[in-house]
Amino acid sequence: MGNPNLLSYETIVRATSGEPEAVDEVLRHYSMRIRLASLENGHINKDTEDSIKQRLVAALFKFRFDEQEA
User: Fold this and answer.
1) CA-CA distance, 61 to 68, in Å (whole number)?
2) Quick one: average pLDDT of 46-67?
3) Helix, strand or coil, per DSSP, at residue 38
4) Which long-range contacts (C-beta less than 8 Å, at least 24 apart) are formed by 20-28?
5) Whole-prediction pTM value?
6) Is 69 part of a structural domain of the chain?
7) Residue 37 forms part of a structural domain
8) Cα separation of 49 and 54, whole Å?
9) Has residue 42 been placed in a domain?
10) Domain limits for position 42
């Protein structure tokens, strides 16, 4: 049994393959951290929040499991 605070490996693999439900699950998993990172003067900056989400999704699609550095 894995750590309940982490996303499952299967979810990450599905998300990197572009499966919409898995991408949504990743965004939901990190939503609170994204909101905290978007705080400016006690308020959520919607542009910052959207930018972080876009960068997270872009990073998912760039991620490759088969490349390992020696």
Assistant:
1) 17
2) 91
3) coil
4) 23/57, 23/60, 26/56, 26/60, 27/53, 27/56, 27/57
5) 0.82
6) no
7) yes
8) 9
9) yes
10) 9-61
pLDDT at 4: 77
What are the percentages of helix, strand and coil residues in the chain, rounded to 5?
Answer: 60, 5, 35
What does the pLDDT read at residue 63?
87
Instruction: Please tell me the total count of domains within the chain.
Output: 1
Q: How far apart are CA 18 and CA 3, in angstroms?
A: 24
Q: What pLDDT digit, counting tens, does each position of 1-49 carry?
A: 567 789 999 999 999 999 999 999 999 999 999 999 999 999 999 999 9
Q: Is residue 4 part of a domain?
A: no
Instruction: Count other Cβ atoms within 10 Å, centred on residue 20.
Output: 9
Task: Determine the Cα–Cα distance for residues 49 and 62; give it in Å rounded to an integer.
Answer: 20
- Tokens, residue 1: 């049994």
